[in-house]
């Protein structure tokens, strides 16, 4: 009897131990499965969309698993406490919503997609996401989608009618340079529209300040220059930039070749408008401006600069404006042109340039400058 009782106790102990192990396994396995299910098929509402009407992205979702995306930084609500079952579920839902939102926007924003043109309803969703989200990677993907769609003429009116201009312009206040660049690109594409330009003019001073204070030759600076160039294609809003022309000449002298060319495109728009001639002549120019006329400078840079100076020279009536020439300060573009001998030395220094077209342009500029400054009546 004693032996049978001992065997019974051992058997009971093994059964209880096995049951406990199975319970622990089921508990841990069940939590893991719940987390995976939440990550794959949780709620379809994007957490950044808040109460925005129609801000659901189930039709954009992608169920394919991506282990890399699970490592992304995701905002969790305060009740998602680590170590609790409710916290685990809340964190899984937050990560799933962020993952679906990013996949949805990136899928629509992809240039290689067969369906990159969004409908008005889809554009509304993306604008709502831009307005409500604070996550840089979501904003970047959404702005890329808007920029791609703003390249189409019919979408520029739709985005404006959906209230997209102030929504995108608000992103200019961000400190993230990548997000700011994408916002500037969207506004640049939207600005190829007369009505959009009329509404975007209120942001020109901000864009101008951000452009001249951004890191030299940065993507943000170039994107800002492109937007300002588009906004000054017509003469209507050029006066807004009158106080920043000196800064543009400074960027031109200090920047690399790409920055120089972009600044020249902007200054060329201004130089073609006779009403901006005085503002251009008042602008302070760096003393290094003359040194740009040398053999090492890019041919396109020299030619565009000569065209700008020719336009200014043609638009300014030297004889008629003789009494008012005292209003131009030393170091201004006016004095750069007025000091004919200094200017001539700099320009004539590139007559030995290897390019024939440069030589022709230099000769033409010098002839016009001499004719206006020293008219035959005074010889």
Automatic annotation (TrEMBL):
Topology relative to the lipid bilayer, per the entry, is:
Single-pass membrane protein
Q: Mainly localized where?
A: cytoplasm
Q: Which UniProt keywords apply?
A: Cytoplasm, Membrane, Mitochondrion, Mitochondrion outer membrane, Nucleus, Phosphoprotein, Repeat, Signal-anchor, Transmembrane, Transmembrane helix
Known Pfam families for this protein?
A: Arm_2 (PF04826)
According to the entry, every stretch annotated as the Armadillo repeat-containing domain falls at: 118-337
| Protein's cellular compartments | Cytoplasm; Mitochondrion outer membrane; Nucleus
CC per GO annotation: mitochondrial outer membrane; nucleus
List residue spans for each ARM repeat.
163-200
Residues that span the membrane, as ranges: 6-25
Q: What does this protein do?
A: Regulates mitochondrial aggregation and transport in axons in living neurons. May link mitochondria to the TRAK2-kinesin motor complex via its interaction with Miro and TRAK2. Mitochondrial distribution and dynamics is regulated through ARMCX3 protein degradation, which is promoted by PCK and negatively regulated by WNT1. Enhances the SOX10-mediated transactivation of the neuronal acetylcholine receptor subunit alpha-3 and beta-4 subunit gene promoters.
Report the family membership: Belongs to the eutherian X-chromosome-specific Armcx family.
Q: How does it assemble?
A: Interacts (via ARM domain) with MIRO1, MIRO2 and TRAK2. The interaction with Miro is calcium-dependent. Interacts with SOX10.
PANTHER family per the UniProt record, alphabetical: ARMADILLO REPEAT CONTAINING PROTEIN, ARMADILLO REPEAT-CONTAINING X-LINKED PROTEIN 3
**What protein does this entry describe?**
Armadillo repeat-containing X-linked protein 3
Species this protein is from: Castor canadensis
């Amino acid at each position: 009897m004693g032996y049978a009782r001992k065997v019974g106790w051992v058997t009971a102990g093994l059964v209880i131990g096995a049951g406990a192990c199975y319970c622990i396994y089921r508990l841990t396995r069940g939590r893991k499965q719940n987390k995976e299910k939440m990550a794959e098929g949780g709620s379809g509402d994007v957490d950044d969309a808040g109460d925005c009407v129609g801000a659901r992205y189930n039709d954009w979702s992608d169920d394919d698993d991506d282990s890399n995306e699970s490592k992304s930084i995701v905002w969790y609500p305060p009740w998602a406490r680590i170590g609790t079952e409710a916290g685990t579920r809340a964190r899984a839902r937050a990560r799933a919503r962020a993952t679906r939102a990013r996949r949805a926007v990136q899928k629509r924003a992809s240039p290689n997609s067969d369906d990159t043109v969004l409908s008005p309803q889809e554009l509304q969703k993306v604008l709502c996401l831009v307005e409500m989200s604070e996550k840089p990677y979501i904003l970047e993907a959404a702005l890329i989608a808007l920029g791609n769609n703003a390249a189409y003429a019919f979408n520029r009116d739709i985005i404006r009618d959906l209230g997209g201009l102030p929504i995108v312009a608000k992103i200019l206040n961000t400190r993230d340079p990548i997000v700011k660049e994408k916002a500037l690109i969207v506004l640049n594409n939207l600005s190829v529209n007369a009505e959009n330009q009329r509404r975007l003019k209120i942001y020109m001073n901000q864009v101008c300040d951000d452009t001249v204070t951004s890191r030299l030759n940065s993507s943000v600076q170039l994107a800002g220059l492109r937007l300002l160039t588009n906004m000054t294609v017509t003469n209507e809003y050029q006066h807004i930039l009158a106080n920043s022309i000196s800064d543009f000449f400074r960027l031109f002298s200090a920047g690399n070749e790409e920055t120089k060319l972009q600044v020249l495109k902007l200054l060329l728009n201004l130089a073609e408008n006779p009403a901006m001639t005085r503002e251009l002549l008042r602008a302070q120019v760096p003393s290094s401006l003359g040194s740009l006329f040398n053999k090492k400078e890019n041919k396109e840079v020299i030619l565009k600069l000569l065209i700008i100076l020719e336009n200014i020279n043609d638009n300014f009536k030297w004889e008629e404006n003789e009494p008012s020439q005292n209003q131009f300060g030393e170091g201004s573009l006016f004095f750069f042109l007025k000091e004919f001998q200094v200017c001539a030395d700099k320009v004539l220094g590139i007559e030995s340039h290897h390019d024939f077209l440069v030589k022709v342009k230099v000769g033409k500029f010098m002839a016009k400058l001499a004719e206006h400054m020293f008219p035959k009546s005074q010889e």
